[in-house]
């Protein structure tokens, strides 16, 4: 597949599994990088995240690894380590999320590789970062969400059990942050010829989701708690129940607040000192929620959304995932695309969220089957065909 996008020409070796590292590789691949995913002989663990599967191929694995080529190496075999070493000698980027010390034991740590490839950008994604007292700990999204404070601000309200966000935000965000860091380091490398280490973590990625709540805590010395769908600084800015479902309403600033009152026929509420300013509304948010709920439960969601759109008021439905996939804006922005998989056939996947006017991202390759491109990649390294077949026969390489 011809590479397209702003990162065409970048070669990435992905030594990562499950989610955070593969998200980084996915972002770079969508933007044109040649991403070669290196798997262990039994494959990325997400290949076993089933059900669901399509023709035996794990849906979770296919989502995270489209646009990549795949090679499988048994890194307990010196020949396989040698292959990986050769790949890294000429790569622009390596992404790894092994436990601390694993790459060093293979002779593939940053200090070793920079001696043979000073241009290499060495991206490490870990649970807590490569420095500090928790550096050697493994990382999981749930643990990061709890320790970052995210779970203390997520949920229905005070006194309820802690809740993690429905999506693994620390995994996904750390992958996106890593891709941003790699892109920045790559830009500098093109200017100076010098690579560097890029180090981020699930813990830090989750912390970045607490900007508003951290601002409140820094200013007041009080840790904010969960507020359901409400906003900690502005209101009303949350989900409300209608006659037949739920809608989100963003009437946080004063102009939108007044528009909102006109739409629901409650202009007199602005004369109530409890609700006349954002500060007052936040002080009496529970009262406000109760009163507004009585108005909004009188009509179905469709009626309210039509009225609010006509008034220029930010509002929207609360969609489930399938409804989101079918939404006309989702489709117009090409956020659902179809690729052809060698086993599963036509497979739907999510599109790339950044649009480039001159160098558009492209999703043209399905996730690889285990070792699908091993021969191809080894051939590109210049290895003789007989050596390739010998390594595959010995189990050093899966292909």
Quick description:
The protein has helices spanning 20-30, 59-64, 78-90, 102-105, 110-116, 141-147, 169-192, 202-207, 211-220, 254-264, 278-283, 285-296, 301-310, 321-326, 328-332, 374-380, 385-394, and strands at residues 11-15, 34-39, 53-54, 57-58, 69-73, 93-96, 121-126, 197-201, 237-241, 246-250, 315-317, 336-341, 345-350, 397-398. The chain is an alpha/beta fold and 399 residues long.
Strand content: 15-25%
What characteristic shape results from the CA principal axes?
A: elongated
Query: Helical stretch count?
Result: 17
Number of domains: 2
CATH homologous superfamily caption of the largest domain: Crotonobetainyl-coa:carnitine coa-transferase, domain 1
Q: Low-confidence spans: pLDDT under 50, at least 5 residues?
A: none
Mean residue pLDDT: 96
Helix share, percent: 25-40%
Strand line-up in the sheet with most strands: 8-7-6-1-2-5-14
Structural class: alpha/beta
Radius of gyration: 25 Å
**Major pleated sheet:** 7 strands, mixed
CATH topology of the largest domain: Rossmann fold
Tell me the span between the first and last alpha carbons. 19 Å
The CATH class of the largest domain is Alpha Beta
Report the strand count: 14
Examine the secondary-structure arrangement and name the CATH architecture of the largest domain: 3-Layer(aba) Sandwich
Which descriptors apply to this entry?
formyl-coa transferase, domain 3, 399 residues, 7-stranded mixed sheet, 3-stranded antiparallel sheet, 2 domains, 16% strand, elongated, single chain, 17 helices, alpha/beta, 14 strands, Rossmann fold
């Amino acid at each position: 597949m011809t590479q397209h996008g702003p990162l065409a020409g970048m070669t990435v070796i992905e030594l990562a599994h499950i989610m955070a590292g593969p998200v980084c590789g996915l972002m770079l691949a969508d933007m044109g990088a040649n991403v070669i995913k290196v798997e262990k002989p039994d494959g990325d663990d997400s290949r076993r995240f089933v059900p669901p599967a399509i023709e035996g191929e794990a849906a979770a694995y296919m989502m995270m690894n489209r646009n990549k080529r795949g090679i499988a190496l048994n890194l307990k075999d010196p020949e396989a380590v040698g292959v990986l070493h050769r790949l890294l000698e000429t790569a622009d980027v390596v992404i790894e999320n092994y436990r601390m010390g694993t790459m060093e034991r293979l002779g593939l740590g940053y200090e070793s590789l920079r001696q043979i490839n000073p241009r290499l950008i060495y991206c490490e994604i870990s649970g807590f970062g490569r420095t500090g007292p928790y550096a050697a700990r493994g990382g999981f999204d749930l643990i990061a969400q709890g320790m970052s404070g995210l779970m203390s601000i997520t949920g229905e309200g005070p006194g309820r059990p802690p809740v993690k966000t429905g999506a693994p935000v620390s995994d996904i965000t750390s992958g996106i942050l890593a891709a941003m860091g790699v892109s920045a380091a790559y830009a500098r490398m093109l200017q100076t010829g010098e690579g560097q280490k890029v180090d981020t973590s699930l813990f830090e990625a989750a912390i970045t989701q607490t900007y508003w709540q951290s601002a409140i805590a820094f200013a007041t010395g009080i840790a904010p708690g969960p507020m359901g769908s409400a906003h900690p600084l502005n209101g009303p800015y949350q989900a409300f129940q209608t006659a037949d479902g739920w809608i989100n309403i963003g009437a946080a600033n004063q102009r939108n607040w007044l528009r909102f009152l006109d739409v629901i026929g409650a202009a007199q509420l602005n004369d109530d000192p409890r609700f006349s300013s954002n500060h007052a509304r936040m002080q009496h948010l529970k009262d406000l929620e109760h009163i507004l709920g009585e108005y909004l439960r009188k009509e179905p969601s469709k009626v309210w959304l039509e009225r609010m759109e006509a008034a220029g008021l930010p509002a929207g439905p609360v969609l489930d995932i399938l409804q989101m996939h079918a939404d006309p804006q989702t489709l117009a922005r090409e956020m659902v695309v179809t690729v052809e998989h060698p086993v599963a056939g036509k497979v739907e996947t999510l599109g790339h969220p950044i649009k480039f006017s001159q160098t558009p991202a492209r999703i043209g390759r399905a996730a690889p089957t285990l070792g699908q491109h091993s021969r191809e990649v080894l051939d590109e390294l210049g290895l003789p065909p007989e050596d390739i077949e010998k390594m595959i026969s010995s189990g050093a390489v899966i292909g």
